[in-house]
Amino acid sequence: MTQQEFEKITGTEVTPSSFDYINRVYMAAGDIDKSTFCKDWLNEYVSESKIVSYLTMTVEEHEGTIKNLERQVKQDAECLQNFTDQMVDFLILQAEKWSATDLREKAIKLVGIREYLRRKIEYGFELWKADREALSQILKSE
Question: What gap in Å lies between CA 2 and CA 18, rounded to an integer?
């Protein structure tokens, strides 16, 4: 809601700093209709309420915490993806080095057969019989 909207609905003029507080309360109020909020704001008990002020600050603090947690989750997900990529590459290299089918299976469990085959081809490794069969199945299904 803009200051002009607030003033038009309530029929009152407010200073920019007053509107800043009003808008913070409005944003903290959640999914409330502008007209309903403005009507309620005209009640001196609401507009001057220490409870409303405290609850607004609490909501803002929680919103800040949520944003921080969302950033952390995103960073953690990127870190986990990087680790997974490194692990899969390691498993492919070791499977190739030792002809270890168990390491091949672990790599496939982490990223799926398509991504495993893509990486193996990207490395320039020869496809094993199981790889060729899997690739053949993928191509037949498309």
Answer: 12
Residues 89, 87: Cα–Cα separation, whole Å:
5
Instruction: Please check the confidence at residue 108 and state whether its pLDDT lies above 90.
Output: yes
Report residue 44's pLDDT band, with 50, 70 and 90 as the boundaries: confident
Contacts of 121 by beta carbon, 8 Å cutoff, 6+ apart: 127
Q: What angle do CA 97, 103, 106 make, to 5 degrees?
A: 150
What global pTM score does this model have? 0.71
81 contacts 53 by C-beta, under 8 angstroms: no
Write down the domain spans for the chain: 73-142
Q: What is the pLDDT of residues 82-105, one digit of tens each?
A: 999 999 999 999 999 999 999 999
Distance CA 135, CA 38 (A): 64
Cα separation, 61 vs 56, in Å, equals 9
Number of residues that this document lists for the chain: 142
Lowest mean pLDDT among 46-50, 77-81, 88-92, 124-128: 46-50
